[in-house]
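Workshop exercise sheet. Pairs work together: one partner reads the sequence aloud, the other fills in the structure field after running the prediction. Swap roles for the next sheet.
Pair: D.N. / O.F.
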Amino acid sequence: MVKVVDNLLSPEEFKKLNDVLMGPEFPWYFLTYKVKSGDGNFQFCHNFILSGKVVSKFVTILDPFISKLNMKKVIRIKANKTFKKKENI
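Structure field:
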């Protein structure tokens, strides 16, 4: 079950997160597909945690999420950056 929490971050926390993710120092990595290889879509991705291990030096920007959600264990956290297309897929 998915639980939606509106306004989880304060305006200040959201601004800080947005500034980092959209800033010139944040690394995005190009993927030629979204769901499966050859699907004709592309996106940029940044992994923070994979298989329970921190893989990004930027992981501390997620501290507000992690502390407020009271998670027992984190297996994967990633950010996707997609672009507008003529048609929604």
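Discussion prompt: The first strand starts at residue 29 and ends at 31. What would you look at next?
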